[in-house]
Design brief:
The protein is α+β, with helices and mostly antiparallel strands. The protein is 34% helix and 14% strand. Strand 12 and strand 13 form a beta hairpin.
Length: 584
């Protein structure tokens, strides 16, 4: 069975390409039925918006008839609402949906992302040059497309993200930080050696009968991983990271496990980091024994779901509250550790958040340089990472690796529950606008249903250049304000239009976090500034903002609202003409 259908914009004659391809799944009738249903739901949109089921906590402005999420601030375009893949929400009008395209490559379309965007009014396209609004693609596809992104397109990678996801790069960055700032602050990744460059060093340790886990530098899902304890088992020509094997891990009922945690970067400069409060706990299928004669048993020593689901002992789990099977929710693990191990899980979580922040800071300079080299609008990029963490027998967290494109497929029923919520919260937090390609007739129709005159992506918010005086303010603070108290007292007194644009996005993100928790910046994360290669202006700005309004956001929001009502954020005003503002 093959279903391919071309869709065209009647007004422009533009072909959007194939809506979907089913030929890869022609033997799976259930899959085809579900996809046909999703396609019918997507294309059968009403001409005008209607008030739909609002059982979700989507905050649609009651003054607007458009079922979109209004910004907290005037003269900022609204955001598309993403509904859960199993939820129904108010339908967008066809004046919008005919322009909402989601690009995917032929062989890569993660199920939870796909179902969520289809449910929310998007249509799939395989054409990379189409006017698509968003994509969840592989790193290779990103590298091919990054130089050709349109201003209104959002993609799930940052330039140079391999500084975190490549295992050799990750270790190199963290090891460099340990040498600069002391091992005590960065002793959270197992000792590692780069093969073949450091083979001689590793051989000396192997001669003492130690166990190491070999990982290809840029692979995932357990591919190519193996445990070794003798030097002749190590390939001398291939590129590997040899990581000291944690011999005494924490166990669940005698089984080894690790944590898959989800970390979201919405901006590099300023640095904004979120962590998802729910995650997945992956449990091995053979009881753990730390003996050399068991090193060949992948079902005992490796926790990857892609490996253990091949075991005849693998058992699924369809309830995030139950402590059963070979996959648990993070919530279930915390309950287990609290009641069975008498553990302080809040302390474990605090340490994990510190590991996440320091790891990203270790690559921050490279990430900033990547953004400068490609110079995209601040709207274009976001990235969800998968952080793999293992707890040892003392319940100390260890970072194993970072995945730059974590699986959003549904390997198990529990995956569908956790990743379904994750996909919705991720897409809502990063904030998608309607692309600014609508024709005059569509815009006129939509403006009659919204209090905002600007419905679509506004380049003045994401692409506006700094004035010379704005640049001077930034240079002055970066050069002279090494004392935190100095910039806390001064940087918020006179906000430039660019300052306001940065703060608008910061507050709009915080208004739609779902189950994400902002971990950087906060009122206390200035303590991590000592690890940055350079203290950048925008990080100082957000530090001062959090210090002033972190415990009570409303006064800060009101201050920004006043400026936005005057369209101040859309200007490039010289500093000498800025309105005098001081904190009350």
């Amino acid at each position: 069975m093959t279903i391919c259908k071309e869709r065209k914009d009647v007004s422009t004659g533009t072909s959007y390409g194939k809506l979907w391809r089913f030929d890869e799944y022609e033997d799976d009738e259930g899959f085809v039925y579900e996809e046909i249903t999703e396609w019918l739901l997507t294309t059968a949109r009403a001409k005008l918006p209607i008030e739909g089921d609002r059982s979700e906590t989507d905050r649609v402005d009651k003054k607007s008839k458009l079922p979109m999420r209004e910004s907290l601030f005037a003269h900022v375009p609204p955001y598309i609402i993403f509904h859960g893949y199993d939820k129904n929400g108010a339908s967008l009008p066809q004046e919008i949906t005919r322009h909402l395209l989601w690009w995917h490559t032929k062989n890569f379309s993660p199920r939870m992302i796909r179902l969520t965007v289809l449910k929310s009014g998007f249509t799939m396209t395989e054409k990379p040059m189409a006017n698509w609004s968003g994509t969840w693609c592989t790193k290779l596809a990103f590298l091919r497309r990054s130089k050709q992104l349109k201003k209104f397109q959002k993609i799930n990678h940052f330039p140079n993200c391999q500084q975190l996801s490549n295992k050799i790069n990750l270790w190199t960055n963290i090891n460099r930080m340990a040498k600069i700032h002391g091992k005590k602050s960065f002793d959270y990744m197992p000792l590692s050696y780069v093969i073949p460059n450091e083979y001689a060093k590793l051989k000396r340790l192997l001669d003492r009968r130690t166990v190491w886990i070999l990982k290809p530098a840029d692979s995932c899902a357990g591919r190519g991983i193996r445990l070794v304890s003798r030097s002749f088992e190590i390939p001398k020509k291939s590129s590997y990271l040899a990581q000291r094997y944690l011999w005494n891990p924490s166990l669940i009922n005698g089984y080894k496990y690790d944590l898959r945690l989800y970390v979201l970067l919405t901006s590099i400069d300023p640095l904004r980091i979120f962590i998802y409060s729910e995650g997945l706990v992956r449990v091995a299928t053979v009881k753990y024994r730390n003996r050399f004669d068991t090193l060949h048993d992948r079902f005992m020593h490796l926790t990857n779901t892609s490996i253990n689901k091949l075991s005849p002992r693998y058992r699924g789990n369809d309830d995030p509250n139950k402590q059963q099977g070979n996959m648990w929710s993070l919530t279930a693990l915390w309950n287990y550790l609290r009641f069975r191990e008498r553990a302080n899980t809040n302390n474990i979580w605090r340490k994990i958040k510190g590991i996440v922040i320091k790891s990203i800071i270790s690559a921050e300079a490279s990430l900033v340089q990547g953004m400068k080299d490609s110079n995209p609008p601040s709207y274009n990029n976001c990235q969800l990472f998968g952080f793999d963490v293992l707890l040892d027998v003392r319940l100390e967290p260890w970072l194993l690796e970072v995945n730059d494109c974590p699986s959003m497929d549904t390997e198990t029923p529990l995956c569908a529950i956790v990743k379904g919520q994750l996909a919705r919260d991720f897409l809502n937090l990063v904030g998608f606008h309607v692309p600014n390609i609508l024709g005059p007739a569509d815009v006129e129709t939509l403006e009659g249903h919204s209090k905002e005159s600007q419905i679509c992506y506004d380049r003045n918010i994401y692409e506006a250049l700094l004035s010379k005086d704005g640049e001077e303010k930034q240079r002055s603070f970066e050069k002279n304000c090494h004392n935190r108290q100095n910039y806390l007292n001064l940087i918020l007194r006179k906000l430039t239009p660019d300052d306001v644009r940065v703060l608008i996005r910061h507050e709009d993100e915080l208004a739609q976090t779902g189950r994400f928790e902002k971990i950087f910046p906060t009122r206390n994360t200035y303590e991590y500034f000592k690890y940055f290669d350079k203290l950048r202006y925008y990080n100082m700005l957000l530090d001062a903002w959090e210090n002033a309004y972190g415990n009570n956001r409303l006064p800060g929001i009101d201050r920004l609202r006043k400026l936005c009502r005057e369209r101040y954020h859309l200007k490039q005003t010289p500093l000498k003409n800025l309105q005098e503002e001081t904190n009350s």
